[in-house]
Amino acid sequence: MSIVNVYHVGSQENILATIRHGSGLKWSMEANDWLGNGIYFWEDPSWAEWWYAKRWIERGDRGPGSILEAKIETELLLDLGNRNDSETFREEAQLAMSTIQKRRSAPKNDPEKLGFCLDCEVANTVQVALQGAGKYGLRMPFFLGPSITNGGNFYAGQHLQICLWNAEILQDARQLPSQPDRLSLADFV
């Protein structure tokens, strides 16, 4: 059993409701969510701070935001860094792709614009296929920005991200203290 800390950025109201009642986090339902629809977490708190700065400090168009910290057992996730889970995902994703690509209006990816509509559709289909299999989300490494080496694999923005389908598996949820005066996107570039 492996337990990791995870971090979610959301409205302060939803974060506090989750701490008090165990629920309150809102699913992301965008058509281009790269791990499909669900509740997104990072394992590194600095990425949560980056997202907080992007959504609440730079835009300034939302009510109070907050960062939730919780613990999660990685065995409850389909972990794409794990060989067996990765193979399970690949098999389910191939089945999903064969069905999705037969549609006239099959979604497409546009990495240049961070548009991952096909990825989202595949992840949503895999999610449905795995209901009841003891997996409550996806865990996967991602990168932001260009490679340090031209066309290479060294991404300074590499991070692990989790998309949960069931927030009931979160343990020891708490609100991180807010430090908005020190957060800006410039700190995270």
Q: What this model shows, in words?
A:
The chain is an alpha+beta fold. Helices cover 29% and strands 24% of the residues. It contains four helices and nine strands. The longest helix has 18 residues. The C terminus is likely disordered.
Précis, in short:
By secondary structure, this protein is α+β, with helices and mostly antiparallel strands. It has helices spanning 12-21, 45-58, 83-100, 117-129; strands at residues 3-11, 39-42, 65-73, 78-79, 109-110, 115-116, 137-142, 159-164, 171-175. 29% of the residues lie in helices and 24% in strands.
What are the salient characteristics of this protein?
189 residues; 4-stranded mixed sheet; alpha+beta; globular; disordered C terminus
Helix content: 25-40%
Instruction: Give the rounded overall mean pLDDT.
Output: 87
Which segments are poorly predicted (pLDDT under 50) over 5 or more consecutive residues?
A: 183-189
Question: What strand line-up does the widest sheet have?
Answer: 2-8-7-4
Overall 3D form:
globular
* Strand composition percent: 15-25%
End-to-end CA span:
34 Å
- Strand/helix succession: EHEHEEHEEHEEE
Count of separate DSSP helical elements? 4
Q: Tell me about the largest β-sheet.
A: 4 strands, mixed
How many strands?
Answer: 9
Q: Helices and strands: which structural class?
A: alpha+beta
What is the alpha-carbon Rg in Å? 17 Å
